[in-house]
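Checked the freezer inventory, then went back to the computational side. Two predictions to log before the end of the day. The first one is the construct we discussed on Monday; recording sequence and tokens without edits.
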Amino acid sequence: MLFRSGFANGDGVDYRGIDAETSSSATTAIYVQNTGSIHVDNGGNAGVYASNTGTGGVVFVNSGLIDPPAYGAFLHSGGNVAAINLIGGNISGNVGIHADTTGSSATVGIRQDAGAIVTGLNGNGIEAFSVNGNITFTGAGFDTVFGNSDDVFGGTVNATGDALHANASGSGSIFVTLGNTSVIDGTGAGQADGIDISSGSGLVQVIANNAKIDGSSALNAGNTGAGIRAVTGGSGNATVILGNTTIGDFSNTHLDSGVVVGVGAGIATVYTDAQTKIGHGAASGEGVDVSGISVTAASSATTAIGIENHGTIHVDNTGGNTNAGIYANNSGTGGVVILNYGTIDPPAFGIFGTSGGNILVNNIGGTISGDVGIHADTSSASTATVTVLSGNGSISALAGDGIQAFGNTSTGNVSVGTSGNRINTNITASGGSGNVTANGINAKGLGNVSVYTASGVTISTTTNGNASWAIRATSTDAGNTTGANVIVDNQATLYGNGSQTAGILANTNGASGTVTVINSGAVTATGTGIDARSINGNTTVYSTGNVVGGNGTGNDGGINVDITGSGNANVTTSGSASVTGNSGTDGIHVRTVSGSIYVNTENSYGSVWGSQDGIDVSGNSTINVYANGVTGNTGKGIIA
């Protein structure tokens, strides 16, 4: 059947192609099937209009052509609503398909098969609305028109608004299951998303396999949307799972974000596989503009946010904390877990994670670059922990720290690596053109702080600006009388390149906090090689690796220990370790106030050399120095 003859405006019927209205409680109160062509002028209301003011269902099945009215299809009921666009179906309108139910628990089902097309010329492609009932986007194999979501939504949806838009105002859940080479594009200015689903308190879920989202064009230059946006309130959960899916993979894309997920008190989960790609490339302008994956929560769940990325994420560097390959922010007391196996480049932050509870970031063979590689912090006022792990792969900081692990207000442990899972990744930190602070690893908190690195990797800092360290570990709470211990156990090769760089800083401000540095790696720095500081707690430095230091950053020298209270100092070298202090500094320099000093280099067949003194120690208590192979250039071999 043909309703008027042409596509041009004025060649279609003026108002509605098919108009079906009733007030019925029948299971299927209205059933409309179109296999023909329906042409309605753009000022017209709908190609197909089906409205039931009763509680019965509305079903629309299309394999024909509809163009181009205000609504390609407008479906409304107080009961269930189903729209099915079969192979060959082609629907266009200012809004392609509108489906809504006002029934308290009634559902909306949208099915589209591979080969079908929906176009939103001046609005959303497909939009669906419910209250407490579920909304489902699915495809061929749909068990019944109101059935399961076993099968995948296919075909093409293109819109100047959201391509797929769904809202359940109450507790209804929303399920989007994409596949069959789905092409989903929301191309317009403003927040035009590929997929935008939201619920008052229900589950929102997107599963995409072999889909292409917001990648058929560069989008409107004013686009501020996301490829996928999934948001729910209350205790609702949100899940996004991507396999072999691309988002914003078009040259010079204007898309702001790849995936945006938000929950209230619920749990947010995002997973991408190795074939998933967000953004087009690493060059400027080729990535998405703000974030690859952005997840927010206000939850006390044990794992409020869980992100696992195996894919490739390209994000342009536009600045700010939210400009990240992966951004996770939980304002509640629940935990955040981020696992990265993929490639991220090159935003302000490769990974930015923050929580009011525990946070874990684990880079498992991933390649990360950004101004800052990894940032993890907690704002907990109690004992929440911060843990950053990294094995294999690489971390490149282009204008900042390689790893930042901050227990900002927490007395819980801050750990970068552990004794059983050491940092086993090459880390390069640069001050960039602005010569900003650029630590290889920067770990700090109000409680215990520890850094463990593995052998066979290199950690370096390069800057001529602010003082920077290959490893910086500091406990900052002067009021902490029970913790605030610092441990640096380094097996890596460390470089401090540039006029304002140094090797290892291990420092506690805790009244009784202790400092322990165990070094078996080679440390070479322009500034201090190893700088260890405490107050009333003991400080121990044990090195079997060569240490070369100088002046400019830190307290200067090869190994420096400075204790300002009653703590004792112990410096021991062993094996083939040598210690060198260049540029007018000492090889080993130790100062205490009332604590004892013990220095022993006798078990090392390496040398201790200072361009000033070889070993310089001073204090007001017992001093023991056991040394051989000690040379002072302009000063003494040993001063005690």
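The second is the one RB wanted added to the comparison set:
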Amino acid sequence: MVKKIGLYIVLICTLFSINSEGRQFGNYTSTTELEQQMEKTSGLDRIEFLLSLSSRYNRTDISRSKELAAEAHSISLAFDNDSLIAESNLQLGYISLLEEKSAEALDYYVAARNIFRDFGIEQREAITLAQIGLLYSELSQYPESLKNYYEALSIFREIKAGKGELDVLLRISMVMGDRKEYASALAFAEQTIELASELDNKLVLTMSLSQAASLYEDQNNLDEAISYNEQAMLVLQEMGSSHGAVAVMMNLSELYEGKADYSKASSMNNEVYEFAKANQNNVLLIESMFNAAKIMHAQKEYKSSNDTLFSALGLIDESGLKIMAFKFQQLLAENYLNIGKYDLAIIYAKQAIESADNLGDLIKAEEALLNLIDVYTKKEDYSSAFKAQQKLTSIRDSLYSKENAEQIAKMQARYEISEKEKEIELLQSENKRRASVQLFLGLGFLLVLLAGFFIVRSQMLKVKSSKSELEVSNLKRKELQKDLEFKNKQLTTQSLNMVQKNEMMEEMKEKVENLKKEGSSRELNNLSQLVDYSFNLDEDWKQFQMHFEEVHSGFYHVLKDRYPDLTPNEMRLSALVKLNLTIKEMAAILGISPDSVKTARYRLRKKLDMNTEDNLAEFMLQLEKDSLEVL
């Protein structure tokens, strides 16, 4: 099921938007009216209009939003109005967060928070802390995120701001869920549900009920997930939010399908279908038709499923919603594969690949290619299957590069945040030092001037030196990062190649054995022996070992030093365990059956003197850490 966490964040930001207090300008119903009125104002009065308009634009025209907030900030500085400086900093931080400029956003947020704190504007300080918590959670820096959320929660509770407390409780539940700390996540969700009920805040109540449902679903507790979704649906119906209730109905339909309760799944989905039809909502109508086709597919009613899919594709063409066609083509290919109509399955699998390419979605392209390879294999068209496999390998390489780029971008953002935090600490330390210096002003103006001169000169030299060291450090870090990425890619590619080669050789061996049964010959026997021999070639292992030792240097040395009785095969198995490969992948690489791999792992554990409850992969990870300490 598609998770709704992203929607929750948007709703939370809407609930607790930085625009929410003092800048609504309810008399102006349109942005145009507000723009016209702003042009008639100047000075501090203009700032309120600028910030209100910036808030309206931040979801539709981010450049205009930033331009207005920057003007508000400039005027606030000119008038030396601290509270408005803080408000414009808060708005600029929010815009920077939308632009995914984390370090810049943190600068603005910290500046705003400091002013709000110094002037005792507690509610705005708490809002800013909550936004900083959101920034850190987006970077998966959960401890820092929780630290800011808890501080915001403490302020909201102290000033009895129930709306703010609700917001932060739900955010904490989401962070705990992301960390897979489900017990804590559910505890905070329940707190939110209880408080939202007390405050009669039905919007947050539905979100917290849906959050609890999502957490139970993540733990595969579908009964509890259904119960909380049903509660959310009832609240939405009380609110008169028919669209919200229908969205929950769609979730319930999918949950019932997951439980194989197809009768209830169809019943819920039919209600969604009728609602979409009555309201002429083509997107929802198409989604409900797909859901119906899925339910039929799960019950092996492939013909009925296909009829529904074709009707939906017709509606997609009429509505110009071709972006939705991919999953319908995929399901058609699966249905035809299941009924043995391979040529039709190939047609729709190829259409799905084309749709994925048009969307530029590599993950969807990977799914469609896997489907196509499955069809070719069932059809015994191994040449076409091999070509599709080559394309799949190319796409996976692209995906690997894309994931690496995203990881690097995230790490860069974390690095920038870390540097900003150091700068902030340095500035705070500098401020304290300057405050201490002021105590000695009575010693004489001249002495202070001389001390200031030497201090400033010393600081300039330190900054210059630190900058040079940082530049050298950054260059070295980038070089090491590129080298590690290249070696990791080589190791991954080598592992995949070994798996694919051995799987193909295993398949070829099975074919040869079948042919031998039909009519054995000396040539077939020789070919079978050649296949067996290819499983044991050491050249691939030499390449693999070379790449492995480059990435995990010292691992083999420490392993052999501590356990000298390990055989070469056990050393190889240890390396594969370290890479966290599956039993099936290890079997393919080693050229043995999965059961043999399990036996080999059992023997390896005995030689390593491991307890029954110890995890072998974690053992190898600790061994690598030990090898790094040795180096």
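For RB: The longest helix spans residues 445-519. The mean pLDDT is 81. Let me know if you want it refolded.
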